């Protein structure tokens, strides 16, 4: 049997060309070519032009986009990949930006990357891939760069505060006594007092943040409670009868013992995750174009409930350039349903198709091929939407939701491997989510073009 020879010692007769390193149809080539077509004026103008020569923003941005598109997120891993990976080496033009340069660039230009996101959508529109007719909205929980075990609850903080305050009093009393024999060998009373006072200051600061959140929550709950009370009173005045059901319970002021703050990323929240359990993270939202599966709108929130995310997403879609067109339908599951959300969609001139409840897994075959009764006169917007969802045309449009946005989240988490933010704080994590969505759109646009 013959084998191919192994020869690692022969030098190149001519300098190798980087264009020979990758196939013609490769994601790395596509990212480089696309970024070169974008307007990077905001990036370039931010450099002062003093000191040693800097890496061009197009090179660093291409490295970040390709890294997020292929599951390489950490700046140290990207730096290492410029040595180990042919694709990364091609993008970096055989240079090797260090991890600090990459990390600084990412933090510095998070806002500017938002403009790049829109430019890529405009490019997709020019290529004929983005129609922006029907968009599907959904959210997914993404782990923060913090452990839920680093959270401090209000009740535990109160107990620790009392314990440390008692220890400080005990140490002060020990320092005032003339009997020095009571002090263990090697113990410094001032150092012990200072250590406990530092912990007390940190605990009090954490309690202050929990109390501020509780105050903000109480004001919101009080407004909702008052709205419910006013609605019941208006209904009673209209009908002359006492409304049925229990009256709404007034909210309780002040923090509960379960309220907590995370000491690593205080802006992250404990959120329920699918399959059960809780995780320290953020709620990442995305509105996906049903035809191209490109992400048209995205934002990040601390709220676990999706019901309050329709209006922010409508605002995101409303800020898109007019050249991208106007979305005609908004699809969402029952977690987004409310009368206010339906009204907000109609006000934005987008027809809502939001599930008002969970449907059975095995409906009758007759339901698929029959039309509902005519919509009664005087029906409000919610009834009109429910009626639309029962029609064959409405069901056909709504059926696109599951095959649109859920596969996008699945690929982002399982194929691209993005399951945890690297940056901390809501603003920086929002910028990183924008970078993830930009990388997905590049990856998807490459597939569509191929």
Structural class: alpha/beta
**Count of DSSP strands:** 8
**Uncertain stretches of 5 or more adjacent residues:** none
The separation of the N and C termini measures 40 Å
Query: Whole-number average pLDDT?
Result: 87
Q: Mind explaining what this structure looks like?
A:
The chain is an alpha/beta fold and 450 residues long. It is 49% helix and 10% strand. It is built from 16 helices and 8 strands. It has helices at 27-37, 41-45, 57-69, 75-84, 86-91, 99-108, 110-126, 154-176, 189-239, 310-318, 339-347, 365-369, 381-390, 392-398, 405-415, 426-449; strands at residues 134-143, 151-153, 260-262, 269-272, 278-289, 295-301, 329-332, 351-354. The strands form 2 sheets. Strands 1, 4, 5, 6, 7 and 8 form a 6-stranded mixed sheet that branches. Helix 8 (154-176) packs antiparallel against helix 9. The radius of gyration is 29 Å and the shape is flat.
